[in-house]
Structures are given as structure tokens and as C-alpha cells.
Amino acid sequence: MTSADTCIEFDDVVAGYGEFMILNNLSFKAARGKITLLLGPNGAGKSTVLKTLFGLLRPRQGCITLNGQNVVGVGARSLLLEHGLAFVPQGRNLFGQLTAYENLELGGITLGIKTARERIPEVLELFPRVKERLHSAASSLSGGEQKQLEVGRALLLRPKVILIDEPSIGLSPMVVQDVFKLLRRLADAGTTVLMVEQNVKSALKASDDAIALESGRLVLHKPADELLRDPHIERLFLGGAHAAPAPA
Ligand SMILES: Nc1ncnc2c1ncn2[C@@H]1O[C@H](COP(=O)(O)OP(=O)(O)O)[C@@H](O)[C@H]1O
Ligand SMILES: [Mg+2]
Fold it and tell me: Is the pTM of this model over 0.85?
């Protein structure tokens, strides 16, 4: 990857919680307009990578750049508004008692309510199911509709880079495919996606590149299709890269 193709770069990043370091001299690059899948066993530090990139954790050491600009110390608000970085965290992150529409309005609040309202229809075009439930309480939407609403809320800001953490949790396989297809369309239109997923095979099919962490270190960086052909893929990511060989 040449530096012109690089969107996200971690260079020797050390970050963690209090005294406890989770990312240990982590370096990787993610290409612009591609879907990079971030894999690794539970506790490897995948969510910590996204949180650190989004400015929620400040690295103890190292450099993080977005399109060549250093973003260490830049807060989430300015990452969002000036660098076009959006984050869809793991789990449910909606205001359940507010309607789907109100959740979208709140998502766009930093744009000003007028602009937010103007953009809502374009986002809803992508999510016809959410459009049908627009004036229902968000908590009454299905899990898949809620995740779509969360992605839609992030898209209101027309992000250039989307960080998405385990979008498939709680969703049916068909809805998961819809989410992946949407990410594919966004990437094909130039958006950079960094996705954490445990649903390894179907996520690999939807991705361009895969990187894997173990104990906060990079242990693999390969094209997704190459990894998909690896017969040891399950063992690699479910048991950790150094798991004992499977019985013959
Ligand atoms: N807010 C936090 N405070 C302290 N430790 C945390 C916090 N969040 C995560 N951790 C710890 O950091 C490690 C990595 O967590 P995480 O990045 O969430 O892993 P992953 O997403 O790969 O499962 C885990 O050991 C976890 O317990
Ligand atoms: Mg996680």
C-alpha cells in the first residue's frame, strides 16, 4: 500500500486503561475506500483499537494518522466533524424511548437541526425497513432495524471513515448480509470501513483486507479472499493464532 492509498495508520501505538496496556506497539495500515476487517480472539484489543482511533482513549505512545494527518489528541467531536470519522459501537446505542426519527435528528445535531432534517430522507432511502417504522419508539424496532438505524445515524454526517464494532451481534444471518452489503456499497463509493466482526467467514466475504490482533499486537495482515481460502481459518481466529494444531 502506498502512502497515497493509506487512510488509517497506527504506528507503534501503546494504549490501555489506567496502568493496564492493551495495545502493545501496534502498527497497521488500512486502505482508503476499502473494508478492513479487524479479527482476533476476545480481549485481543479490537474494540480498544476503535476507541483509540475515535479519540476515546489517548495512546501512551505512538502515532495515529488519518489521511496523513496526526489525530492523536484530537477529540471525538472534531474527528467527526473535521475528519469525517464515524463510530458505530458494539451493542445497542439508541435512545429507546425516542422514535427512530428523533434518534436520527439527535445523530445529526452537530450539523444543526435544519441540515440534519434535510439529510434524513437520503439516509432513509438506504433503509426502507426503518423508514416504515420511523415514528415508532426505537426500542420497538427489531434488532436488525435498530442496527440499521444506528448505521443510518452515523451516515447522516456523510462520514469518510466508518468504524463499526461487531455489527452482526443479535442479528439474523439475512440482516447481517444486508449490513455487509451496505458497507460494501459505501466502500465502493469511497468510504473507508474498519470493521470488527467475530462472524469471521461471512465478514471476510464482505471485506477487502483482514488484519488480526493477538494480545494487542498485529499477527496477520492479508487480503480477505486469501484468508478465506486458508483451511485453518477457524482455528486461527477462534482459538488464537498460536492455538494447538487441530487433530488430523
Ligand atoms: N473500560 C475498560 N477498563 C479496563 N479494562 C478494559 C476496558 N475495556 C476493555 N478492557 C480490557 O481490555 C482488554 C481488551 O478489550 P477489548 O478491546 O474490548 O477486546 P476485544 O474487543 O478484542 O474483545 C480486555 O482485557 C478488557 O477486559
Ligand atoms: Mg470488542
Answer: yes
Please tell me the chain's helix, strand, coil percentages from 3-state DSSP, rounded to the nearest 5.
40, 25, 35
Q: In the chain, where are the structural domains located?
A: 1-84+159-248, 93-158
What is 1-84+159-248's CATH number? 3.40.50.300
Mutate which of 20, 21, 47, 57 for ligand 1? The one with the most ligand atoms within 8 Å of its CB, which is 47
Per the CB < 8 A criterion, the answer to whether 174 and 199 are in contact is no
Nearest CA to ligand 1 atom 6: 17
Which atom of ligand 1 approaches the CA of 41 most closely? 22
Q: Report the pLDDT averaged over residues 84-97.
A: 94
Is the pLDDT at 100 greater than 90, yes or no?
yes
Nearest atom in ligand 1 to the alpha carbon of residue 42 is 23
CA 60 to chain centre: 22
* Ligand 1 pocket by Cβ (under 6 Å): 17, 22, 40, 42-48
